[in-house]
Amino acid sequence: MLEFERRYFDVSTMDEMSEATFFFSSSFRTLIGSDLEPIGVPPNPTPQQLLAVATEALGADDRTMGNVPTIVGAIPFFNTSSSALFLSKVNSSPAFDVRAGESSPSLQRPTLARIRAVPEPDDYVHGVRIALDLIEAGRLEKVVLARTLEIDLVSDLDTTNLLSTLTRRNQHGFTFVVPVMAAQQEVRHLFLGASPELLVRRVGRMVTSNPLAGSTRRGATPEEDRRNAEALLSSAKDRHEHDVVVAAVKRSLQPFCSNLDVPSTPSLLQTPTVWHLSTVITGELADPMVSALELALALHPTPAVCGQPTELSGQAIAAIEPFKRDLYAGLVGWSDVNGDGEWAVAIRCAEVRGRWIRLFAGAGIVRGSNPEAELAETAAKLRTMLTALGIEGENTP
C-alpha cells in the first residue's frame, strides 16, 4: 500500500507499488486509488456514453468505508482504443509537497538491450512535410504529429523508482500511473508519465484550464536558456499555434460558464526540459451539477494534441502516424461523486510492460513550421522520460 501524510507526501519512501494502483499527483492534490473496479465502456463510445457509464458507476457505489466514490484512470486519444477507467476507493492529500532530501533514492540506471524510433527520424520529417502540404492546401490550420521510442531493457524496470524520480523532477506538473487491464482484469501494462498540461480542474463552481502550445528546448547555460525563452515568447509561429489552442478551449468552456477569464497574451511555463507558451483560463460554472469529467470530455481533444479542425486533423494523424496512440494524448485524472476533479493531458508519458517501454512525444505543425525543428522539439520532449529513466545520451534517435 502506498503511504502518505495529510500535508506532506514523500514519494521516495514508498513501498514497492502494487501494479493495480492508480496514482495522480499535482500541486492541488495527491490521490491514490486502490481496490480498483473496472468500468465497462462500450466500443467506440461517444463522450455522452462515457459520461453516462461513469455517472452510473458513481451512483451505484454502495461502499461504506467513508471514502468519496471517485472515477479514476485514463481515456484514449481516439475512441477506437480502450479506456482505463475505474471506480475506486481513494486516499488523497489536499496539498502536495515532495521532499527531495537525503532519503531520495539514487537513480537506478537500467541496461539497454535496444532502442528504436517509430517512425524513424527521416520518416517523421517526411510526415511533417505531408502535414504542411495539407495546411498549405487550406485543409488544416494545425495538426499535431507524434513519434515514439521503443526501448528494450535487460531486466524489468523499477517503476516505483521511476515514479519517485518523475515526481521529484516535475513538482509543478501532473505525475500519474494508470494500470491497464487485460480482459481477465489482470494488469497488462502500466501507463505513466509527468504531464505539464492541465486540461481542466473543477472545485465547486470554479473551473481552471491551462492550455500549452508552442514549445522550445531549455538551454544548456542560463544565457542560452533565457534566449530560448525570449525567442519563444516573440515567435509569431508559436504565438499563432498557441492562439489556436486557447481559442478552442475558450469555445468549449464558454457554454458551461457564467463568466470566463482568458488572458490576452500567453506567459512562459518551464519544465526541466522544455519551455512552453501557457495561458491559465479560469471561470465559474453556470450549472453546479456539471462535473470535472463532463468538462474534460467537452474539451478533448484540444488542438494542443490534435489540431484544427478537429475531425480532419484526427484523420491526418491516423493516416500519417505509423502507430496507435492508445492512451497517449488522451486524458488522465479523476472525478468524484461531488463533481470535483482534475484531468491532465496525457503527454510526457510511457507504456511500461516489464522490460519493454514505449515513449511518446509530439509537436504542433502550423504554417511556417520547419520539419527538422519539429523533430528537434519532439526530441526535447522525450528527454523528460529519458532523463527519468537514466538512459539519456544513449544515442537516442
Task: Provide a concise account of the structure shown.
The chain has 397 residues and is of the alpha+beta class. The protein has helices spanning 47-60, 121-136, 159-169, 222-234, 236-253, 292-299, 310-320, 371-389; strands spanning 22-25, 30-38, 70-75, 84-93, 112-118, 142-153, 174-181, 187-195, 198-203, 206-210, 212-217, 257-261, 267-270, 274-278, 281-285, 307-308, 331-336, 341-345, 349-353, 356-366. The strands form two sheets. It has a 17-stranded antiparallel beta sheet that branches.
Report the biggest beta sheet as strand number plus sense, adding barrel if it closes: 17 strands, antiparallel
Which structural class do you get from the secondary structure elements?
Answer: alpha+beta
Q: Please tell me how large the radius of gyration is.
A: 20 Å
Helix and strand element order: EEHEEEHEHEEEEEHHEEEEHEHEEEEH
Task: Calculate the mean pLDDT score and round it.
Answer: 89
Structural summary, described in words:
With 397 residues, the chain is an alpha+beta fold. The chain has helices at residues 47-60, 121-136, 159-169, 222-234, 236-253, 292-299, 310-320, 371-389; strands at residues 22-25, 30-38, 70-75, 84-93, 112-118, 142-153, 174-181, 187-195, 198-203, 206-210, 212-217, 257-261, 267-270, 274-278, 281-285, 307-308, 331-336, 341-345, 349-353, 356-366. Strand 3 (70-75) and strand 4 (84-93) form a beta hairpin. Residues 1-9, 12-16 and 95-104 have low confidence and may be disordered.
